[in-house]
Protein: 4-hydroxy-3-methylbut-2-en-1-yl diphosphate synthase (flavodoxin)
Amino acid sequence: MSVSEAVSLGMPEVRNVFPRKKTRKVRLGNLWVGGDAPVTVQSMCTTKTTDIGGTLQQIAELTAAGCDIVRVACPSADDAEALPIIAKKSNIPVIADIHFQPRYVFAAIEGGCAGVRVNPGNIRKFDDQIEDIVKAARDHGTSLRIGVNAGSLHPKLYKKYGGATPEAMVESAVWEASLFEQYDFHDFAISVKHHDPVTMIKTYELLSSKGDWPLHLGVTEAGPALQGTVKSATAFGALLRQGIGDTIRVSLSAPPVEEVKVGVEILQSLGLRDRTLEIVSCPSCGRAQVDVYTLANAVTEGLKDLKVPLRVAVMGCVVNGPGEAREADLGVASGNQKGKIFIKGKVVETVPETDIVPTLIRYANKLAEDMPEGEGEGVQVLV
Structure:
């Protein structure tokens, strides 16, 4: 059947966007975080910051995977000296991650980092240097993130609440925020991370009710790839559904590019980020008349370099296959050693099973070529 003879089966519009809680808008380099700005995805380099070339290479890889903001560690003076070059050459905003030494906070600000993540519980003599930090940050247009972690909570709060409870972590965060706000400084976000998703959700819900600070979501020490992905998706989904969360980091014991991929997928699945390539495939069952696992993997591999917002459905039988395929931009419903190829709800071709993968790849590339320029691009930058 030719395209002109294709039978239209309908293409319903599906869009699921959750209302965002109104938070303060904070500038981070060429991006906004909070307010009506898109929810951004962050990760952290695993390279030594002193390895400037290696760090910039990893930042480029993260950027290509969809990362919007990157964090780099700064535990030493040598790392601090590398920050100006990295911040200048990175294509996405760089946040310096500071623990223990307040002097590195100033080095990061003066070095041109878009932001500085400070953990008050891990920085000696932090509270008595707030005024100086505020002045430096204001002079350089640098934003901050106050990072409260269960593992670095003040001993007094542990004793008061009997552990790292949501109430303890929120009291810590609100107190630290007030130290900046007394100097009329509001260019900061807050994170209150915990390794337990249930505790983490309750903590962010409580913190969100206390003020309009932009919130950075994270399940800290989430674990290996599978466990960490499940924990993060569960917690982020519960919070983003309520409009809570302005930027996210999926913390995995895995390469940082994998963190970014998971983060992007979470936002796309919630309708909070423009989708790129999406493969819809059935889990297979006794009804399947093709090897769905092999077919889906082959299509995914063949289209891995496409960066456009295409939804491609790979279905293995005639029960749900035609319905799922017609709701995709491009799809196949397989059966009887054949595959019916659909484009936006229209059957355009029926091919032998052996030709399904190359046919889908051919149509996908053609659709990508015909797509209007700029469609499917990611976060909008500040102009």
